[in-house]
Amino acid sequence: MSVTALTRLVEHGLVDRGTIGQGVVARAGERLAGTGADRLFPLRDQLRELLPWHGLRRGAIVAVASGTPGATSVLLALIAEPVRTGSWCGVVGVPALGTAAAAELGVDLGRLALVPDPGTEWATVTAALLDGLDIVVVQPSGPVGPQLARRLAARARQRGSVLVPYGEWDGADVVLRTTGQVWHGLGMGRGRLRSREVNVVSYGRGAAVRPRKAVVWLPAGDPAPTGPDPAAVVQGTAAVPLTLVADPAMDEAS
Which pTM does this prediction carry? Predict the structure, then answer.
């Protein structure tokens, strides 16, 4: 069923075959949800501190709050390690997501299926990708009603996938929110921006009810190299804003 659904998305032009990579549809149908340690997708060390499972747990909903400085980069960093180690990821409804930025943060573009403009079919596309891919990022084009949110959460649990909403999502197991960032690399009015440190807080329900904080260094996982003027930084630079598209079918779906 998952192979058929993914193939239909490609045939209708909702998913770019080039971004999926050779054989992703066939291999997605062979994916099996594991048990124990196999139920966790790995994360870079700084992000592991923010999740109670110290990885991305299959069947979980891990939301990334949008609209704050560094949010898009944290989203990409969240999926980079799982994709680098062989997982498949789909991104639905995030037209401003840049493949160059994704590659810089370590995302294997050959394992990334992009659906930048699903229109009113965003929920259908998300459900189909949850059937066959390990991780699915989605930015809904409007408010998500409780019934629709529960239905997609149930699909993720049944398929052993991770649903990563980009934006508000009631019922998320964990929410990651950036609270500020500092750029490094400029000194005495010259030089190049080399890296940045992004402050991230996580909170949620169950094991994630206690808030956690971490500093995530991007694009690399290590602090910026020291130099003669390490205090020369640029602060508060926001990620490129994303344009939300009105969804006339949202009320009906919710």
Answer: 0.77
Distances (CA, A) of 131 to 54, 61, 81, 84, 139: 24, 15, 21, 21, 18
Measured CA distances, 166 to 7, 68, 108 (Å): 25, 11, 20
Lowest mean pLDDT among 43-57, 89-103, 233-247: 233-247
Asked whether the beta carbons of 44 and 81 are under 8 A apart, the reply is yes
CA neighbours within 13 Å on the CB side: how many for 204? 24
Percentage of the chain beyond pLDDT 90 is 49
